[in-house]
Amino acid sequence: MFEVGDHIKFMEPLDHDFTYGIIRETGKGGALIEVTSFPYEGKGKMVKIGYKYLYLMRGGKRFGSRIHKNNK
């Protein structure tokens, strides 16, 4: 389901906002994520997250802006 290089968003149980990242390694029970956005301390931080907290970002890099079909 998840592959290395996929753009994902995740929210752990005590978080109150989504965090965005890129899957760098998959394993049994979770994936190693390179964080690309706030609320974690900084970009580039690597965290291990369980698969049940991951959501796949469809259509490439869609980080928080409104995307319309007629936009180029």
Secondary structure: elements and pairs:
Blueprint lengths: L6 E4 L8 E9 L2 E6 L10 E5 L3 E3 L16
Antiparallel strand pairs: 1-2, 1-5, 2-3, 3-4
Main attributes?
single chain, 72 residues, mainly beta, SH3 type barrels, five-stranded antiparallel beta sheet, 0% helix
Shape: globular
Biggest β-sheet: strands ordered side by side in the sheet: 4-3-2-1-5
Provide mean pLDDT, rounded. 78
Number of strands: 5
Task: Give a brief description.
With 72 residues, the protein is an all-beta fold.
Protein described:
The protein has 72 residues and is mostly beta strands. It contains no helices and five strands. Strands 4-3-2-1-5 form a five-stranded antiparallel β-sheet, with no helix packed on it. Helices cover 0% and strands 38% of the residues. The protein has a domain at 7-56: SH3 type barrels (Roll).
